[in-house]
Amino acid sequence: MAIYGATLLNLALGLAVLTQIVLFMYSYRLVCVSSDRSQNASSKEYISIHVRRRDERLFHVGQRMALGVSMLVTLAAATLTVLLVKSAFEVDYVAHFTSKETPLLYKFAALWAGQAGSLLFWLLILSIYSAVVIFQNQRKRSDLMPHVIVVLTGVQLFFLFMVNFSTNPFTPVNADFIPSDGLGLNPLLQNFAMALHPPTLYLGYVGFTVPFAFAIAALVVRRVDAAWVRGIRRWTLFAWLWQSIGIILGGWWAYNELGWGGYWAWDPVENASFMPWLTGTAFVHSIIIQEKKEMLKTWNMILIISTFVLCIFGTYITRSGAVSSVHAFTADKFGQLFLAFVLVIIAISAYLVISRRQVLKSTKRMESMLSRESGFLFNNVIFVSLCFAVFWGTLFPLISLKLMGREISVSIPFYNQIAIPIGLLLLTLAGVGPLLAWRRTSKESLIRNFSIPLVIGLGAIAVFFVMGIKSIYPLMTLGLSFFVLGTISMEFYRGIRSRTKRFKENPFTALVAMTSRNRSRYGGYIVHLGIVFMFIGFVGKAFDSEVEATMSRGDHTELAGYKFTLEEVVEKERPNHKALVAELTVKKDNKIVDTLNPEFRIYFPRTNREQQHSELDLQTGIMADIYTVFSGADHTRGLYAIKIMINPLVWWVWLGGYFLVAGTIIAIWPRKKKE
After folding, report:
1. More confident residue, 320 or 432
2. How many helices and strands in the chain, by DSSP H and E?
3. Which of 54, 77, 498, 611 is the most buried (most CB within 10 A)?
4. Which phi and psi angles does 435 have, rounded to 5°?
């Protein structure tokens, strides 16, 4: 089957090249026709004949060829999946990332576990998106679609070159025999969250290709009004949603699998996913102004181009080996090809933006600094500033290596010193923005709208100060969180009160009805509510505590009012590993709270590929998590290394993630036609 998969990829590459040629021929003809409109009568006669005949055969051929590329890529990905499930160890990729003992779920996950497979998976998602875009727009946006397909197929073409010539997943094993077993999946990746994290993140990464393609098409045909923005709004939110889910799942995996007690470490690969999320979030807010006010056209173009470039750049960081990360793939020569692709995208995009600067000019200006437009703009500037800071911190080790000959790493305190104040500004704007009016906000409106939320926020600061929280940043975060909760609650209260008075509905019916009729607005408020809950969870990091102890059976240790006793350590044999399972009894006030079972695992025991791995166990609570790690063992002497942490408020981070996802789904969900 491997040879069929390789053949499918070769055919897809050839068909993608032909698609580009056909659509360039058609697009060039359209450009010529468009440019001749203001010239002599003979050219006008030519145009009228062209329009009357509606000779779009080249376009339809290119459209169908693009669908053919997507179909061939899908078949190739399906072929590799079958090879992984069947454990076809004659294929090098299969032999490296699966084994006979690998559970079925992780054989599927092996598709994106390595370089070659992950690039094919990237290409698969793009192919599915491209097919959906073509089917969605068969009878509309005829001026944009030829150029949209050219951009989508162009990106496909790059990845097809990569998987065909640089890192082909169907390459046979370089040996005279077929291995009897494979190396198996990295134990760190044998986790349910990690099985979901890469595909969800890729759905976001690749999803931003669609609005980018429409942006380039709009620049080419000089149609940069609000129409193209409305056309890609749901695509943008869809990509942003999956990017958000991917980041949250990545944090959840790190928290539950790596054993260091945190969910975000400002790792270069984490940053690579965070940067396009920041500019994508700015774009999601900014297009609202262009839709409603026909403003910020240039800004929106720069934002969506930057988001797509950062998605490709993030792929480069992950795969080039240029940075050290627990998430990164091994170094590979084709990282430079990714960097070259990024530079080509920047060059083409910059040329189009500069050459279309006249049509990108906005005719309207902001009338007041106290307006919703200015609130959105300040919000965008802060998002982009944070993105630049993260970008600089991520690349600084590489820059220092090139300029000074030694790599200077940027640690977590650098990012925290920048991100915490900027994050508080963003949290403030999340509360202020909804209360500002379009064009200009009056003094009376400011007093009326902000009085109650300010009292709630200041009251929260006073209460938490009395409770013993004296640090400035935690106090400010909690105060601002309650301020934003107050503004969001007031918006929902006003809407519900209006409907109950007008339509005599009960509060719940009014809530559902007003949310259904204005899904973008109230879905956005629910997303902001999720962000507030996340910030409350972030406060907990200031109060983490931990202890490490070497214990034997019957020993105990204490932390934050809890008593931990190691009751027993049991050895268990499992299909692909053996494990030492600890039984830790947790007591508080002499009452048993829980029994936790962290594990110390050995994968591929009794082989030269033996790998040790700690599988933690935790109890999750609204106020704090009890987090235990079995980090080492001297089983013959009965000594075991146990690390215990108390992590406050982490539960609120995951709750905020649920609200963020729910709010985005509400905002995306299409309204019924009768609405």
Report:
1. 432
2. 20, 10
3. 77
4. -95, -5
Q: How many CB atoms lie within 10 A of CB 554?
A: 9
Are residue 105 and residue 200 in the same domain, yes or no?
no
Strand, helix or coil for residue 293: helix
Residue that is last in its domain, among 398, 423, 448: 423
Are the CB atoms for 63 and 15 separated by under 8 Å?
no
CATH number reported for the structural domain that contains residue 630 in this entry: 2.60.98
Residues 74 and 153 in one domain: yes
Please state the pTM of the whole predicted model: 0.90
* Residue that is written with structure tokens 């049991």 in the block: 570
pLDDT digits (tens, 9 = 90+) for 634-670: 878 889 999 999 999 999 999 999 999 999 999 998 8
Strand partners, 524: none
Structure token pair of residue 134 = 């073509």
Please tell me the distance from the alpha carbon of residue 62 to that of residue 58, in angstroms, as a whole number.
6
Q: What's the one-letter identity of residue 209?
A: T
Nearest alpha-carbon partner for 1 in 71, 70, 80, 69: 80
Q: Which phi and psi (to 5°) does residue 614 adopt?
A: -100, 125
> Which residue range is the domain that position 325 belongs to?
191-423
Say whether both 173 and 320 belong to one domain: no
Q: 468 with 587, same domain? A: no
Rounding to the nearest 10 degrees, give the CA dihedral for residues 77, 79, 81, 85: 180
For residue 138, tell me if it sits in a domain.
yes
Domain boundary among 510, 542, 574: 542
What is d(CA 665, CA 523) in angstroms, rounded to the nearest whole number? 8
- Distance of alpha carbon 105 from alpha carbon 190, whole angstroms: 9
Q: Which of 131-135, 144-148, 417-421, 605-609 has the lowest mean pLDDT?
A: 605-609
3-state SS, residue 545: strand
One domain, residues 491 and 580: no
Cα(569)–Cα(574) distance, integer angstroms: 16
Give the separation between CA 515 and CA 526, rounded to whole angstroms: 10
- Cβ-contact 499, 505 below 8 angstroms: yes
The partner residues of 568 in beta bridges, in order of sequence, read: 583
- Tell me whether residue 276 is in a domain: yes
Residue 670 domain flag = no
Q: For residue 283, list its beta bridge partners.
A: none
* Count of CB atoms situated within 10 Å of the CB of 43: 15
Q: Is the pLDDT of residue 43 over 70?
A: no
List beta partners, residue 612.
Answer: 602
Q: What is the CA radius of gyration of the chain?
A: 28
Closest to 636 in 3D by CA, of 569, 549, 564 = 569
Q: Tell me if 307 sits within 8 A of 276, measured CB to CB.
A: yes
Q: How far apart are CA 617 and CA 601, in angstroms?
A: 13
Count: domains in the chain: 4
Does one domain contain both 2 and 26?
yes
User: How far apart are alpha carbons 594 and 661 in whole angstroms?
Assistant: 31
Does residue 673 sit within a domain? Answer: no
CA nearest neighbour of 228 among 242, 213, 241: 213
- The DSSP secondary structure of 486-529, one letter per residue, reads HHHHHHHHHHHHHHHHHH---HHHHHHHHHHHTHHHHHHHHHHH
Binned at pLDDT 50, 70 and 90, residue 444 comes out as confident
First-to-last C-alpha distance (Å) of the chain: 51
Are 266 and 293 part of one and the same domain? yes
- Residues 223, 359: Cα–Cα separation, whole Å: 8
| Whether 480 and 579 share a structural domain | no
With contact defined as beta carbons under 8 Å apart, do 153 and 69 qualify? yes
pLDDT for res 192: 81
